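Task 17 of the worksheet. Students: predict the tertiary structure of the chain below and write it out as structure tokens. Keep your answer in the requested format; marks are given for formatting as well as content.
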Amino acid sequence: MRTFSARHAMFLIIFLCTFLFALPLPKFEPLPAPLANNAVAQVKSRGDLYLFSFMGIGPKKTWDDVSTAAFILDPYIGKWKQIRNVPGPAGRLAAVAAGAREHVFLFGGYTVDAQGGEITVSDVNVYEPLTDRWLRGADMPIAVDDSVAGVYRDRYIYLVSGWSKSDAVNNVQVYDAEKNRWQQATPIPGRPVFGHAGAMAGDTIVYVDGAYRNPSGSPKYIASDECWIGKVDHKNPGKISWSKLPPHPGDARYRIAAGGSEKDHMIYFSGGSANPYNFNGIGYNGEPSEPSRYTFAFNLRSGKWETLNADTSDPTMDHRGLFVLPEGLILAGGMAKGQQVTPQVTVLNKREKGL
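Model answer:
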């Protein structure tokens, strides 16, 4: 039987004090380097929770500032440590990560060359925390970047829509982390998008917004305002019942940070930008993009949207997810005001402002 460690006891004391005496939210040290569009995931390994950040773009926001670096955060001590870099000759943007079966799975993304050319890859990289080594998973049948990931039963990882080669796709691809194989699930019935945001809690996927090709031609891509919820069939993980949701609080946005909690029965969202943009933070309309101050959630119990904070301090955009911990929502990196790539790690309250 696993023993209850001293650091677990300290973590429990901090959590109880925060809950009972309304102490300030905990603080974590910044990322070791400024990064935006970094893939993030959390996973338990032998009972301990760890948070991860992979790749992303640095403060120059140029093709040669895309990183292969990987970092792990121990939330009990609040400090980051660099781990073995993501394999491959080049860093990637718009990859998505998910934790399952005590491993972290890193899917797709795109590379950028000196001429600005972007290539979506089908790579699946699997990180084993106990040995600090990378393994190779079965390639995605359809290479995607800027997708949304969700985990079901600590085994099935869903990749919802995303960009593939020349346009967004409506595919929902399911990776079986136990058998290292893929299947296609029920496609999304809505508009195919990329840079959307969402997560999974239990058998339910919620995703919102993103961008799509402008049928009028200019600007090239515009924000989508569609919100969808999907329920996975308990007997068939490839069958999803999709339903359209009403608009969420605030404007439609691109690259919002999102994360789900089965315990809370909530899907959380924060930041993003109403102006879809390229990797340098400049919108496809030629205007600089700025982050939204909205933090909101979808309550799976009530089936309704909730505004947690319409005026979030120090908002950020260009995220690939957020961490959901008992103490709050954790955002690592991103672009702050003025398209500045930041190393900041922000902790947001999970309850409505003032409660």
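Marker's comment: The first helix runs from residue 6 to 21. The first strand starts at residue 39 and ends at 45.
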